[in-house]
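thought: fold this chain, then report.
action: predict
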Amino acid sequence: TVLAMDKLSEADRDAFANLDRSVATLAPADLGPVLAEPDASWMTRIEAEWKRRYGS
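observation:
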């Protein structure tokens, strides 16, 4: 989930922990480490590289 679980109440954390998962839903432990979003300042470089590779 994108939620900060440590900021939820205990009741809300329990509700998430007790959700039924389908075969297509991974448990949080199976998802791997959380990655921070890139800094917004990277967008200029990413956009320029995209245009260079794929055109406008």
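thought: worth noting. The mean pLDDT is 88.
final: tokens above.
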